[in-house]
């Protein structure tokens, strides 16, 4: 079928509306079209699904996609169908009539991708139908998503996945594509062996997520208000991870009381409640989901803008996977880890409850790796990628350590002392013992091994334990020193360690905090105009999505809406060039979105009042992310004055983040009161609404309401 397109890029634009492939995708797709077995390790948000979806559309026959979760099946099928692609799923949610209808469509070759759970695919009752498909329609490939589930060494082993090798033996001519987001070398080998892949083409993508901004914050005594402030300063959807079910319920309730529409998600809830809360989050009816790690695999919402770890995670792998649920669409997203030692004690207690000493040891090592990340002065991205065996040269410019760099000092001599001590202790001890030797500790363990007789004993008394620990961590993070991964964390010298000892390499580390003052941002009218239009397009997208009972991102990704707002296409030809707009979506939605864009452009051409100098100062601080209270403090004004400024700016159609200022549910109630009583008297509205609603909230909603009335006029 590929012959109908001049190139793979042309096929990509036709089916999915994108102009170019992400890194690595094109080669994978070429290998898939060439009927090769594949093992694809690509991090969350890297574009794994396209690697089997596009080949499925370019080859004859049906592609079967093995997926472990109903929610994931539904989400991917919704997205494909909204692109005009024949896709369906078979699972336990369907009635008998629905299942028969879908099976008939498959046999009539109307379906190109079938999503199915491994249990059903291997069921003896399904075997006859599968043979019918193979013989009469043809199966072009079997794509096994979340393939790490096949391995006992993976983080989510599922025994039924191991049985999938039956398909290879029964239908040896059908190529198999195994896909997963994370897999160590051992898990990769196990996947190949268990699925009996034949000389597979292995594609290992970088684990780097360049659009993610990483930050660690010391957890304050009143940590809830610290969390609330961060949520209010970040727009869009977000996930808050907590350690316990009780904490999940508590935080979700507090957020709702503070006008952040949040719902809980944990294993103690019923399947129905969990499913309902997840669906409401996916469809943007809820802004924040507060969850334990039960909220994990299969959450395919691409426009999550932030993931906050309110409690410390148990391992760096968990942290990477959970934070990676932000920004899957490639747009900028934020990860914040709130860190204090009280949380560590809680996890230590849970680890001590494990009956197996080996499990305890490994769990402690995993926890200590998270602590090293949280307390490290090096680039956060360097630390994370090193964990997965990937080198990064540091200075990512998108983490707190790089954005607020500490002074860098030459610690080569100290590093030589440290590494020399590791060597003289025969690479048989961890960091704590090495530091004890260097600082001349009198502990019994030192004398037991005769380490008080070493030349490195007591050569580092001039530095504190914390300073030596800082050096040791930095050596590990920079790849200048290794350690075992068996739970004992024994330090091991590597090639770079010996280069330091031979004076062939210097060592520089970040040693203390250095704060930067907040810079002033310059208000860009063109950018502000695009932000206002973007918000209007989001409203239209949500209306269409609700009518179709699908998540908004299925209609268009945030990135597509931003391009529409920036480029402001005037006709079908210009609209079709927007990334994410294919032929099907052009016909389905072109008129609606072009109408909103054209109405907005006309409204901008009308003369409108300009903000005063004082209002502009408020607007600039607002665009820097300051809260209303912080702006008032910065300017020395009352909060009510700042709210008056923002209300007037809203009325002038200036780029004020209205949804950050007033929660959606409060907006709705105040708007109902305005529609009933009018907008002339704030006092009348306040009396009608009661004590639960402040004058400032009413004032802001009135400003927004007036701007909408002007647009309609």
Q: Hey, roughly how much beta strand do the residues contain? A: 5-15%
The N- to C-terminal Cα distance equals 51 Å
Number of strands: 17
CATH architecture of the largest domain: 3-Layer(aba) Sandwich
CATH class of the largest domain: Alpha Beta
CATH 4th-level superfamily of the largest domain: P-loop containing nucleotide triphosphate hydrolases
Instruction: State the helix count.
Output: 35
Mean pLDDT: 88
Summarize the SSE layout with pairings.
Blueprint: H1 8-16, H2 25-33, E1 38-41, H3 48-58, E2 62-66, H4 70-81, E3 87-90, H5 96-107, E4 113-116, H6 118-122, H7 124-136, E5 139-144, H8 159-162, H9 165-170, E6 176-180, H10 185-194, E7 201-204, E8 212-218, H11 223-233, E9 237-241, H12 245-257, E10 262-265, H13 271-282, E11 288-291, E12 304-309, H14 316-323, E13 333-339, H15 341-352, H16 357-375, H17 380-387, H18 400-403, E14 408-410, H19 412-424, H20 431-438, H21 444-448, H22 465-477, E15 482-483, E16 491-492, H23 495-501, E17 508-510, H24 525-548, H25 552-555, H26 558-567, H27 572-576, H28 583-605, H29 613-623, H30 628-635, H31 639-651, H32 658-661, H33 664-677, H34 682-689, H35 695-712
Parallel strand pairs: 1-6, 1-7, 2-4, 2-5, 3-4, 5-6, 8-13, 9-11, 9-12, 10-11, 12-13
Antiparallel strand pairs: 14-17, 15-16
Helix pairs in contact: 2-3, 15-16, 19-20, 19-23, 20-22, 24-26, 24-28, 29-31, 30-31, 31-35, 33-34, 33-35
């Amino acid at each position: 079928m590929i012959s109908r397109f001049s190139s793979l890029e042309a096929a990509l634009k036709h089916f999915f509306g994108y102009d170019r492939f992400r890194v690595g995708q094109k080669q994978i797709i070429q290998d898939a079209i060439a009927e090769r077995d594949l093992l694809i390790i690509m991090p969350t948000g890297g574009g794994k699904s396209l690697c089997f979806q596009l080949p499925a559309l370019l080859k004859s026959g049906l592609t079967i996609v093995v997926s472990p979760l109903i929610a994931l099946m539904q989400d991917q099928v919704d997205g494909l169908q909204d692109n005009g692609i024949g896709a369906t799923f078979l699972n336990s949610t369907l009635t008998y009539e629905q299942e028969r209808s879908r099976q008939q469509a498959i046999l009539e070759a109307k379906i190109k991708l079938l999503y199915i759970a491994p249990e059903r695919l291997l069921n003896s009752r399904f075997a006859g139908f599968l043979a019918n498909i193979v013989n009469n329609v043809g199966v072009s490939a079997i794509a096994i998503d979340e393939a790490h589930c096949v391995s006992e060494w993976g983080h989510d082993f599922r025994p039924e996945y191991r049985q999938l090798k039956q398909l290879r033996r029964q239908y040896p001519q059908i190529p198999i594509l195994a896909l997963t987001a994370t897999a160590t070398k051992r898990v990769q080998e196990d996947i190949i062996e268990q699925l009996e892949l034949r000389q597979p083409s292995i594609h290992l993508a970088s684990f780097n997520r360049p659009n993610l901004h990483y930050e660690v914050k010391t957890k304050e005594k009143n940590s809830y208000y610290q969390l609330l402030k961060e949520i209010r300063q970040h727009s869009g959807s977000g996930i808050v991870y907590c350690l316990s079910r009780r904490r999940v319920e508590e935080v979700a309730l507090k957020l709702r009381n503070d006008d952040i529409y949040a719902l809980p998600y944990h294993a103690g809830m019923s399947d129905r409640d969990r499913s309902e809360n997840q669906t409401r989050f996916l469809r943007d009816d809820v802004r924040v989901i507060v969850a334990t790690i039960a909220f994990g695999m299969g959450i395919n919402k691409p426009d999550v803008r932030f993931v906050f770890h309110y409690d410390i995670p148990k391992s760096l792998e968990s942290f990477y996977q959970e934070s990676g649920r932000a920004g899957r669409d490639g747009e900028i997203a934020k990860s914040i880890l709130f860190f204090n030692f009280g949380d560590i004690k809680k996890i230590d207690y849970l680890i001590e409850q494990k009956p197996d000493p080996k499990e305890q040891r490994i769990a402690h090592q995993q926890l200590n790796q998270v602590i090293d990340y949280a307390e490290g002065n090096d680039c956060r991205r360097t630390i994370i990628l090193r964990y997965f065996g990937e080198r990064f040269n540091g200075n990512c410019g998108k983490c707190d350590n790089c954005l607020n760099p500490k002074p860098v000092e030459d610690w080569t001599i100290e590093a030589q002392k440290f590494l020399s001590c590791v060597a003289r202790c025969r690479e048989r001890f961890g960091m704590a013992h090495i530091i004890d030797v260097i600082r001349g500790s009198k502990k019994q363990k030192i004398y037991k091994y005769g380490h008080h007789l070493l030349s490195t004993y007591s050569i580092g008394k001039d530095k504190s334990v914390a300073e030596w620990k800082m050096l040791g961590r930095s050596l590990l993070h920079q790849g200048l020193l290794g350690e075992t991964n068996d739970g004992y964390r024994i330090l091991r010298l590597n090639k770079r360690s010996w280069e330091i000892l031979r004076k062939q390499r210097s060592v520089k580390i970040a040693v203390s905090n250095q704060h930067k003052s907040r810079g002033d941002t310059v208000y860009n009218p063109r950018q502000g105009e695009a932000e206002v239009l973007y918000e209007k397009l989001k409203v239209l997208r949500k209306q269409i999505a609700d009518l179709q009972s699908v998540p908004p991102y299925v209609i268009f990704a945030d990135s597509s809406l931003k391009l529409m707002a920036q480029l402001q296409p005037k006709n079908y030809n210009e609209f079709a060039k927007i990334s994410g707009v294919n032929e099907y979506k052009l016909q389905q939605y072109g008129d609606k979105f072009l109408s909103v864009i054209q109405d907005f452009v006309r409204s901008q051409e009308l003369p409108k009042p300009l903000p005063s100098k004082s209002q502009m100062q408020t607007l600039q601080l607002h665009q820097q992310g300051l809260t209303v209270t912080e702006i008032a403090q910065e300017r020395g004004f009352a909060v009510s004055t700042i709210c008056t400024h923002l209300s007037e700016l809203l009325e002038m159609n200036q780029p004020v983040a209205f949804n950050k200022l007033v929660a959606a549910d409060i907006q709705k109630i105040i708007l109902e009161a305005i529609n009933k009583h009018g907008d002339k008297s704030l006092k009348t509205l306040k009396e009608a609404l009661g004590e639960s609603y402040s004058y400032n909230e009413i004032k802001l909603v009135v400003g927004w309401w007036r701007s909408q009335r002007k647009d309609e006029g």
